[in-house]
């Protein structure tokens, strides 16, 4: 340690005065650091870098982080061997790899004369790259360099072929990307600086926006495509549309001393309704076209936004005459053919190239902006990268591409960034999606195979994935606590609830952690199934954790469980159940944590507070995650691993104290995730790989269908609805009124707010008590509001969407949704699921502020099938995010794929992964695939 410290102090002395005179000493020192810690080497690089006037070391340090990540990947895939030679652990401090040594010390390579530091960098880089790309390169030789001028880098071979790696600074980039034998990692994972036609300035601009590598840049897909030839023909209110048009005026206006706005008016030529003829902005008006005017408005509140220079700079961003692509939700104005768009995006597309694209009728890619980079510039840079891309960068074998009708990776990149027509863009998208799914599947299955011993067992496992089977434990074999709990329920389980519990309990009895998804439509009774699973675990002497997305739900589940446990008889002692949320007072929370750690508390229900570092369990055996899609990937992942670690450490302490080690000490808790999102069984199996799926397919008996009405929210409409409400209340029913916002807003006067409407409704329904519930209320106020509604003290509950998830008041028999057009179909289905949970016939009224919103709502009036509605929801969503990152919010996050529509590709990807692994269990025969798999870290997708 002391020696290392001394060295660090002296290193600059060695090298700074005469720069390279003592380089041999330096490299001897570097060599000795080969065996020191990563931290010390970081320090060393920092010192060497300025001393040797080499500015590449910062990047080297950046890359160091990157490699560090790669080693994490390696931990996830222990069987991935980094190349055929032993892995080169440049920064790990324990490597004795001779190749590294030879670079660092060999006289023949460095010579005893002047050494170009950039060469050192390159040499290190190439070794590091070997590490990075997990390929089998051998460093052949490092030739002496003359400086200045472009230096030749070490010659590296892969599979007998050699190529030259160029000097980092003064490279001829073409030689990297043009070399068709260069392995794909060396191209896609090359720094962006290697791309021809990208200046240093642009390069640093790109890097500061996160585009460090070619892969990153090519992965920046267009958000959507605009059809420059055909403007939209039919325009409905509230529709998300894309237009091409010409800016007529752009004005920044000061409306008051603290309010200003930008108004851009764009004129667009569209075909007359019924005319399918194409039109472009450059064409003159004729009988079949008309011009519509889009008023794009952005408001700014605050005095500082009213200054003229600010407003001027805003209005100058687009000038009259600019050809622009505008997208956003249109709202018709009073004057015919005038529309307003408030949340819009605007891209200026006028330039020579674009006009030629327009003339050719190509889809025009619209890029999402990133870090303030001009999307147009980004598009141009991507085009340069595509030009320089070698043909063979595809890790997926050709026979697989052929089998599933896929484009090659290079063609896919070209097709997605520069499609000649929409069909090509679609095919390219398919390939990109295939990759997303494929590496996820491959990673999961690969990891599963790693845990299995012999070849026969591995084949057996793959067979199991081709033909999954289910197992169950019959109720007679459940533990006494579970049986008593079942007996104490005020109803009998439906047959699919019963088989769900049996399936889950079969898993719980195994010494392998369960990873199961329980899926069932709203109100089908998933909670009680999860409770029974928890009882089975508690009955065997372990603990259970139940995590839900909202406090309201946590309280509800906690109360329900306590009520159910009260009726449980004939058990030696009833399990103690705690509630832990963000609002639990500090002292109480500490006591609960202590109880969990000591094992006194058998079950805890709570929000994400359960995954806080401080919470430790004595013997956690099951973690239930309700509405799992509501938790982010990281939260879910943390939950799994955290619980594992905590239970492990806690048990270790226990065991060292009593010396009684149990076999299952290192077992992770079983995980039961629950969702109401409809996922077809085959899709879920393919998607989750090792995650088993249990579905509840029936509803509790006696449930009546909910009568649903879509009504226009005009005066007559409201009168009608109030009348229906009155009848419902008079006959003893309870009513939810759901609002899109809490307070009335000046900017959105058409929206009704829950808080603002309380007085209106109370006045209207005199003698009937009304409650209010929204997200800004304190936890105990929310709890109280719901308690009063549940007990019947209030008969009308005015609420925001906070009730959407899980709220269960069986006596609620009517729901009115204000401004229902503002909600998604799937969301309305969830909301509607809050009524019709008891024996009483229920109604749901969807009030739309405009007549044009009614047809979409009618879909709900006609169907109560979650699957059908999820599809309709998808179709009704605009084209805006087809290639975007925005997900439905229900399913795991994929950058491009949308599970609801891309399910068939997922299944193909699943098949492809099975085919590949059947051929080579450890992927030895597919080194490129193996490397790509490691780069992608597919397991992080689902938060494992
Ligand atoms: N077998 C059954 N018979 C009668 N009622 C039942 C049965 N199972 C559950 N219930 C009741 O049905 C209602 C809905 O159950 P639960 O809240 O578990 O549904 P869920 O599937 O979690 O719904 P959501 O997705 O809306 O949260 C509850 O009031 C519950 O008591």
From TrEMBL:
CDD domains: DEXHc_RecG (cd17992)
Ranges where the Helicase ATP-binding domain occurs: 507-696
Keywords: ATP-binding, DNA damage, DNA recombination, DNA repair, DNA-binding, Helicase, Hydrolase, Isomerase, Nucleotide-binding
Keyword Transmembrane: no
Annotated Polar residues bias: 140-165
Keyword NAD (UniProt): no
Record's catalysed reaction(s): Couples ATP hydrolysis with the unwinding of duplex DNA by translocating in the 3'-5' direction; ATP + H2O = ADP + phosphate + H(+)
Superkingdom of this protein's organism: Eukaryota
SMART domains to which the protein is assigned, alphabetical: DEXDc (SM00487), HELICc (SM00490)
Pfam families cross-referenced by the UniProt entry: DEAD, Helicase_C, RecG_dom3_C
GO terms for biological process, alphabetical: DNA recombination; DNA repair
Domain Helicase C-terminal: 717-875
Molecular-function GO term, any one: hydrolase activity
EC number: 5.6.2.4
Region feature (Disordered): 140-176
Family statement: Belongs to the helicase family. RecG subfamily.
Cross-referenced NCBIfam families: recG (TIGR00643)
Protein name: DNA 3'-5' helicase
Lineage: Eukaryota, Viridiplantae, Streptophyta, Embryophyta, Tracheophyta
């Amino acid at each position: 340690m002391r020696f290392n410290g001394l060295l660090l102090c002296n290193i600059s002395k060695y090298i700074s005065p005469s720069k390279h005179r003592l380089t041999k000493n330096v490299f001897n020192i570097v060599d000795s650091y080969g065996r020191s810690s990563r931290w010390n080497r970081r320090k060393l690089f920092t010192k060497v870098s300025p001393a040797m006037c080499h500015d590449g070391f910062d990047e080297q340090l950046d890359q160091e982080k990157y490699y560090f990540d790669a080693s994490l990947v390696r931990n996830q895939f222990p069987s991935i061997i980094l190349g055929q030679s032993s892995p080169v652990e440049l920064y790990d401090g324990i490597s004795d790899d001779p190749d590294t040594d030879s670079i660092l010390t060999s006289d023949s390579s460095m010579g005893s004369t002047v050494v170009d530091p950039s060469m050192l960098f390159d040499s290190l880089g190439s070794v590091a790259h070997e590490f990075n790309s997990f390929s089998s390169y051998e460093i052949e030789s490092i030739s002496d360099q003359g400086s200045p001028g472009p230096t030749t880098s070490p010659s590296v071979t892969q599979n007998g072929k050699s190529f030259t790696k160029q000097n980092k600074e003064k490279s001829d980039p073409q030689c990297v990307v043009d070399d068709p034998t260069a392995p794909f990692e060396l191209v896609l994972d090359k720094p962006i600086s290697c791309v021809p036609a990208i200046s240093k300035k642009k390069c640093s601009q790109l890097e500061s926006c996160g585009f460090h590598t070619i892969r990153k840049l090519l992965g920046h897909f267009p958000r959507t495509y605009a059809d420059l030839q055909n403007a939209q023909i039919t325009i409905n209110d509230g529709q998300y549309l894309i237009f091409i048009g010409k800016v007529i005026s752009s004005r920044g206006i000061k409306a008051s001393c603290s309010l200003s706005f930008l108004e851009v008016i764009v004129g667009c030529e569209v075909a007359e309704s019924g005319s399918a003829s194409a039109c472009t902005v450059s064409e003159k008006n004729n009988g079949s076209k008309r011009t519509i005017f889009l008023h794009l408005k952005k408001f700014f509140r605050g005095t500082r936004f009213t200054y003229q220079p600010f407003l001027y700079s805003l209005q100058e961003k687009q000038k009259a005459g600019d050809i622009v692509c505008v997208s956003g939700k249109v709202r018709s104005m009073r004057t015919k053919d005038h529309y307003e768009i408030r949340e819009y995006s605007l891209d200026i597309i006028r330039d020579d190239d674009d006009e030629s694209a327009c003339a050719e009728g190509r889809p025009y890619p619209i890029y999402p902006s990133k870090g303030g980079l001009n999307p147009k510039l980004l598009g141009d840079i991507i085009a340069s990268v595509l030009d320089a891309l070698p043909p063979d960068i595809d890790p997926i074998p050709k026979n697989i591409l052929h089998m599933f009708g896929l484009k090659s990776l290079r063609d896919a990149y070209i097709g997605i960034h520069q499609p000649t027509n929409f069909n090509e863009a679609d095919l390219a998208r398919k390939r990109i999606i295939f990759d997303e799914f494929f590496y996820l599947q491959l990673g999961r299955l690969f990891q599963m195979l790693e845990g299995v011993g012999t070849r026969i067992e591995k084949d057996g496992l793959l067979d199991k994935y081709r033909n999954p089977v289910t197992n169950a434990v019959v109720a007679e074999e459940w533990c006494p606590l579970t049986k008593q709990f079942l007996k104490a329920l005020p109803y009998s389980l439906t047959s699919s609830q019963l088989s769900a519990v049996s399936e889950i309990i079969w898993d719980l009895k195994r010494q392998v952690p369960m990873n199961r998804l329980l899926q069932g439509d709203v109100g089908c009774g998933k909670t009680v199934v999860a409770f029974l699973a928890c009882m089975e675990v508690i009955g065997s002497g372990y603990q259970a954790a139940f995590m839900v997305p909202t406090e309201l739900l946590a309280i509800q589940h906690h109360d329900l469980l306590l009520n159910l446990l009260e009726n449980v008889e004939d058990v030696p002692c009833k399990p103690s159940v705690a509630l832990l949320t963000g609002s639990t007072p500090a002292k109480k929370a500490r006591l609960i944590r202590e109880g969990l750690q000591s094992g006194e508390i058998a079950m805890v229900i709570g929000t994400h507070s359960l995954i806080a570092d401080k919470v430790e369990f004595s013997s956690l055996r099951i973690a239930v995650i309700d509405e799992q899609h509501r938790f982010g990937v990281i939260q879910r992942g943390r939950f799994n691993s955290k619980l594992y670690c905590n239970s492990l450490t806690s048990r270790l302490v226990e065991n060292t104290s009593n010396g009684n080690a149990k076999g299952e000490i290192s077992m992770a808790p079983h995980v039961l995730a629950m969702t109401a999102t409809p996922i077809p069984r085959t899709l879920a199996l393919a998607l989750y790989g090792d995650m088993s799926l249990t579905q509840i397919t029936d509803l509790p008996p006696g449930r009546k269908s909910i009568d649903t009405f879509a009504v226009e929210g005009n005066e007559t409409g409201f009168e009608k609805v109030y009348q229906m409400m009155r009848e419902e209340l008079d006959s003893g029913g309870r009513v939810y009124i759901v609002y899109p916002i809490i307070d009335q807003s000046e900017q959105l006067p058409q929206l009704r707010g829950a808080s603002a409407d309380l007085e209106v409704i109370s006045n209207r329904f005199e003698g009937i008590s009304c409650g209010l519930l929204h997200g800004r209320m304190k936890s105990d106020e929310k709890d109280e509001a719901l308690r009063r509604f549940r007990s019947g003290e209030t008969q009308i509950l005015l609420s925001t969407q906070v009730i959407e998830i899980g709220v269960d008041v069986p006596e609620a028999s009517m729901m009115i949704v204000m401004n229902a057009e503002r909600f998604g179909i799937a969301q309305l289905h969830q909301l509607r699921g809050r009524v019709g949970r008891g024996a009483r016939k229920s109604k749901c009224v969807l009030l739309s502020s405009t007549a044009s919103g009614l047809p979409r709502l009618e879909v709900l009036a006609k169907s109560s099938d979650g699957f059908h509605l999820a599809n309709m929801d998808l179709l009704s969503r605009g084209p805006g995010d087809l290639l975007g990152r925005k997900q439905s919010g229900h399913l795991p996050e994929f950058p491009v794929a949308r599970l609801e529509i891309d399910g068939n590709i997922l299944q193909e990807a699943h098949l492809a992964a099975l085919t590949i692994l059947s051929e080579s269990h450890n992927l030895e025969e597919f080194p490129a695939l193996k490397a790509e798999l490691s780069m992608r870290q597919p397991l992080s997708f689902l938060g494992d």
